[in-house]
Amino acid sequence: MESTNLFIIFLTGLTTGGLTCLALQGGLLTSVIAKREEKLVSTLASSKKKIKAIIARNEVTRQPARPAGGSTSTQFLPVVSFLTSKLLVHTLLGFFLGLLGTTISLSPVTRGWLEVFIGIYLFGIAGNLLHLHPLFRYFVITPPKFLAKLAKNESKSNSIFAPALLGLMTIFLPCAVTQAMEVVAIGTGNPLYGAAIMFAFVLGTSPTFLIFGFLLNQGAGWFRKYFPTIAATGMFGMSIFSINGGAGLMGSPYTIQNFWEAATTGTSSTTDNNTAVLGNNIQTATITAFDSGYSPRNITLKQSIPAKIKIVTNRVSSCARAFVIPALNISKLLPSTGETIVEFTPTRTGPLAFSCSMGMYTGRFNIIN
C-alpha cells in the first residue's frame, strides 16, 4: 500500500474529491459566512458614530465606501480557518487510521455497507436542503450543545472560531471519495503514511472550497440563491453513486453497470466473456486491470476446481488497483505495473462478483457445474 502515489491522491482531491466534499460540506461554510456578514451589518447599523466616521474618512480620501461585508482579506478568514482546521483534523485522522490498520482490516462487505450508509445520508441531506419533507431535518448533524455554547460565547475570535469548529466537524461528514481515502489510509498499516494520504487528499480539495468562498464573499446573490439546489443535485447524484458502489462491493449483481450492460448488449450476449482454461486439477484465467475497469468482466469457472486468476496491470493508478472478491473476503492491492495471482476454489454455482475497492468497476465469475 505504501507504493500509493501521493500526487495521484492529491489530484483525486483536486477533481472529484473537491466537488463531492463541497456538495456535502459547502452548506456548513455557507452558514458561517452568512452569519458573520449579518453580524457585521448589524454592528455597523447600530453604531452611527462608526458609520459617520467611515463616511468622513471616505470624503477626506475621496475613496468609495466599502461594503458592510469588510475587506476581501477579512472575508477570506472564515474560509481559511475552516480549511486549516479541516486539514489538521484529517491529517490526525489519517495517522490514527494508519495505526488502526496495523491491527485490523475492513472487509469488502463492511466497506460496502459503509458506502450504502453514506449514500442514504447524502440523500437525506439533499432532501433537507430542498425542504422536501420535515423528516429530512433529522439528517442534519448539529454540534454538541457545549461546543455551540462555547462558540457563541466567543467575542472577538468568534468569526474565526466558528468556521474552525465546523472544519473540525467535517471529520464526521465524509463524502464517498473521502471514505475511500480513509480505507486506503487504513490499508497502509503505517501511521505516518496514513497521515500523508489524508493530508494530500484534503489539500487537493482546498482550491474548490476557496473558489466557493470567493464567490460567496463577492456577494454573488445568484450563487447564494441557487447553491442549495446545485448542492442538492450533486448530493443526489453522489447518493446514487455511493449506494451503487456499496452494492458492488457487497457482491450484488444489481448495479447500474450490470443493468446498463444487460440493456445495451442483451442478457444472452457473450461479449467480454471468457472461459477459464482447465489444466491438471486446476483452472486458470487472466484479467487485465485498466484505469477504467477490468477485462474480461465475465469469466466462466468450474465448481469445486481450484482457480488461479492472474491479474495484469500496466501503469494503473485508479481504484482498479484494489481488487476484491467480496463473498470470499479476498482483497488484493495490485502493483501499478506487474502481475498478481489470486487463488480460490469455487464452492457453489452462480455468479461470484469481483470489483475495485469503491465498487465502481465490477465483473463476475460465472460458476458452473
UniProtKB/TrEMBL annotation:
Domain EfeO-type cupredoxin-like, first and last residues per copy: 280-363
Domain Urease accessory protein UreH-like transmembrane: 9-236
Positions of transmembrane segments: 6-29, 87-106, 118-140, 160-181, 193-216
Keyword Glycoprotein: no
Record InterPro entries: Cupredoxin, EfeO_Cupredoxin, UreH-like_TM_dom
Protein keywords: Membrane, Transmembrane, Transmembrane helix
Top-level taxon of origin: Bacteria
Gene3D superfamilies with a match to the protein in the record: Cupredoxins - blue copper proteins
Chain coiled-coil ranges: none
PANTHER family named in the record: HEAVY METAL TRANSPORTER, HEAVY METAL TRANSPORTER-RELATED
This protein's name: Urease accessory protein UreH-like transmembrane domain-containing protein
Organism: Candidatus Collierbacteria bacterium CG1_02_44_10
Lineage of origin: Bacteria, Candidatus Collieribacteriota
